[in-house]
């Protein structure tokens, strides 16, 4: 081999080694950027949490997550053992739980049929077919039921969202009569009724403020990805996650951007936000497809902590007594310290968790994709009770009845003698 070839070979080897060094450095840097962030109680942490609002007259459970902060804490203290007082067959998948008001529960199945069901007896009061797919909870306010709908079947259409449509419909709560309907993009964003407006996001990445009385669009804001989860609110500030990996804070009155933050950078790109945010202790808590639960400052948007769970976190957090509860596709329910982000306890649920937990009577209720619902002690993570149905978000309630959401059935539970099938 002549000197020219030897020199070329040496130069190529040097380039390869240099490239390998850069690649190794890049990998190390990305791993460092994606490492969990530890928090503390000194930065944007309000140590006392305002009590959850009391239910309005006639409205027992008004919205997905109970109130605008989406903390998912029940004001009712039902506890097992339960008996099944009634069962309602919803025919197809129930991916999201009901709202309860005026003696009825309101729920929409995956096929887009909205039911009003007497919450004491479990009997149907009315139903309305949309001809669309649905994957969201209704909201109830002022004797009106607000429901968001996806595109027309097929429900898992791969067509561009720009070529599909969805809508938000306002039904009379007592009769089911349609009061108004507004077409937007396909939406699985459970409506937020707040300050006289209805807020939703859609697959086109747009957030809408609709007039509560008429459905008229008051303002819109465009994110960089699909908005699949619901919005949360505190005062005049709205919070929404997007599939662009960003969390947005908007002025609820104008739609003006207050701040925008992101999930952590990592190899393969940032995680996406399907989870609905929860607002508590001056912070915004949200899960990500990168397997983490995040805490951001509600005022600044600063990243305060992140905690890995080992699987996707589609689950929307519940927050109670300075703990953040979120399920993971790793098959575990996590209780995370709201100040530091440290894991307080971990419950192995035996199957992936996609839906949001609910706290009621000092217990955390969670369902798995394996088809079982659990109640665990909210302070220790000790298993207390289980039920052989459930898949997504497990339970809502009024003063007399706990309503457990099965895969395609609703169960009215009342605390009396032990439930034989649940042992």
Automatic annotation (TrEMBL):
Q: Which Gene3D superfamilies does this one have?
A: YVTN repeat-like/Quinoprotein amine dehydrogenase
Limits of the Pyrrolo-quinoline quinone repeat domain: 166-309, 317-409
Q: Name one Pfam family in it.
A: PQQ_2
Q: Which SMART domains does the record match to this protein?
A: PQQ (SM00564)
For this entry, the protein name equals WD40-like repeat
Q: Which organism is it from?
A: Gaiella occulta
Q: What is the lineage of its organism?
A: Bacteria, Bacillati, Actinomycetota, Thermoleophilia, Gaiellales
């Amino acid at each position: 081999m002549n000197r020219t070839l030897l020199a070329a070979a040496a130069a190529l080897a040097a380039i390869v080694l240099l490239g390998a060094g850069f690649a190794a450095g890049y990998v190390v840097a990305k791993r460092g950027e994606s490492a969990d962030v530890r928090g503390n109680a000194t930065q944007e942490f309000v140590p006392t949490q305002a009590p959850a609002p009391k239910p309005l007259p006639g409205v027992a459970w008004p919205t997905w997550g109970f109130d605008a902060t989406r903390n998912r804490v029940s004001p009712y203290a039902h506890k097992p053992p339960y008996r099944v007082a009634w069962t309602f067959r919803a025919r197809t998948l129930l991916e999201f739980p009901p709202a309860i008001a005026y003696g009825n529960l309101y729920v929409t199945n995956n096929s887009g049929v909205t039911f009003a069901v007497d919450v004491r007896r479990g009997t149907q009061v009315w139903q309305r077919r949309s001809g669309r797919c649905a994957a969201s909870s209704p909201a109830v306010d002022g004797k009106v039921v607000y429901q968001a709908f996806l595109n027309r079947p097929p429900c898992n259409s791969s067509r561009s969202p720009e070529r599909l449509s969805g809508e938000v419909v306002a039904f009379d709560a007592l009769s089911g009569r349609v009061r108004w309907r507004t077409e937007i993009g396909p939406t699985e964003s459970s409506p937020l009724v707040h300050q006289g407006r209805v807020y939703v996001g859609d697959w086109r990445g747009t957030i809408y403020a609709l007039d509560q009385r008429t459905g008229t669009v008051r303002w819109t804001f465009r994110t960089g990805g699909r908005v699949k989860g619901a919005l949360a609110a505190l005062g005049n500030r709205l919070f929404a996650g997007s599939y662009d990996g960003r969390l947005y804070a908007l002025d609820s009155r104008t739609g003006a951007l207050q701040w925008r933050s992101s999930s952590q950078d990592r190899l393969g790109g940032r995680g996406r936000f399907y989870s609905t945010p929860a607002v508590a202790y001056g912070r915004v808590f949200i899960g990500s497809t990168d397997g983490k639960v995040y805490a951001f400052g509600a005022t600044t948007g600063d990243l305060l902590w992140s905690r890995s769970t080992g699987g996707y976190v589609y689950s929307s957090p519940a927050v109670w007594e300075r703990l953040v509860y979120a399920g993971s596709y790793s098959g575990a329910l996590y209780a995370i310290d709201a100040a530091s982000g440290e894991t307080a306890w971990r419950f192995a649920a035996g199957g992936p968790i996609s839906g949001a937990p609910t706290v009621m009577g000092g217990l955390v209720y969670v369902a798995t994709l394996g088809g079982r619902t659990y109640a665990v002690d909210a302070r220790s993570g000790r298993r207390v009770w289980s039920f052989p149905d459930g898949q997504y978000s497990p339970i809502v309630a009024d003063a007399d009845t706990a309503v457990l959401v099965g895969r395609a059935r609703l169960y009215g539970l009342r605390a009396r003698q032990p439930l034989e099938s649940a042992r």
